[in-house]
Amino acid sequence: MTTLEALRPTEKLTVYRVLEALNFDLTDWERDQDGNPIDNPAINGRAFAWSYHDAASEQDVFMLWHAEMAERDGQIVYRQGWNGFLRELEETRPQTAARIPKPRKWRDVLLDSEPWHLSLWEPLSNTFEFTRGLPRAAESTPNDVPPVDEPDLSLLADIKRFTGRWQPDGKSGWLPRDWGRADSKRGAGALGASLRGVRRDDAASHSCSRTASHGESGTNAQRLDPAQRTAFGGDLDALFDVGLITFGEDGGSACPSPHLADTAIPVEGLRLRRPLDAEEAVYMDFHRTEIFKAE
User: Fold this and answer.
1) Tell me: the pLDDT tens digits for 252-274?
2) Cα 234 vs. chain centroid, distance in angstroms?
3) Nearest by Cα to 82 from 130, 126, 131, 129
4) Residue where a domain terminates, one of 81, 105, 134
5) Which of 61, 166, 191, 235 is most enclosed, with most CB atoms within 10 A?
6) Residue-level pLDDT at 190
7) DSSP structural state of residue 49
8) Are the CB atoms for 44 and 29 separated by under 8 Å?
9) How many CB atoms lie within 10 A of CB 243?
């Protein structure tokens, strides 16, 4: 296991040389803003950014300060709260610009061979955190999963035929277009339905208020019945394909994938139900009690 001290930078490298070693496209670095050639691209103003992206290789490189890194639960993390950092900067350096005699060409740099992933993002406080290595869910391999008997594989294939592009009625592709939209009556998003009790032989789970219009759904009580879940046609297929859900031992009920521990779900930002905001909650309560007269 790599220690924090082992990541301490020791080499004198320019950002240009680091990106060059990663085969980044550095054509734009060779000219200034006016299009004039630069004798030494390594001192280009781009060298003072903190992140770089290469469209051709889809690589992202971040310049992280070793002093801001820490070890936590056996992992190396880097957390930065920009709001607090900017407040401190304003207090200690009130000027908005400063002239320096020449750009800083050299700094201690270490090009880490391991990838990092974004493990936390809090928009309100403008705080982000990187963790060294891949997410734990992504580190799992098929070798971690017990072998599945052939009959179970056949059953899973049958289940998938009832969802997404396997729908026998030729309606594949309609639900993903509504991905994330809220239902006007129930306030539930396309991912807002419960995963419990979804069975391949349960026709009701595929003919709910989102599949059929409200005029065809029956009485008001039926329209508001929790059993009339949001349609799962495309959702089950998409969730299954990316490994977020699996199917129970009975072969019919859907449940969260064992690769997603409860502690990993909030870290990865996954949510299967969008909570109602205050305005939506008032709206829903009024329509249930006054319009539809539901208890």
Assistant:
1) 566 666 655 555 555 455 544 55
2) 19
3) 126
4) 134
5) 235
6) 33
7) -
8) yes
9) 14
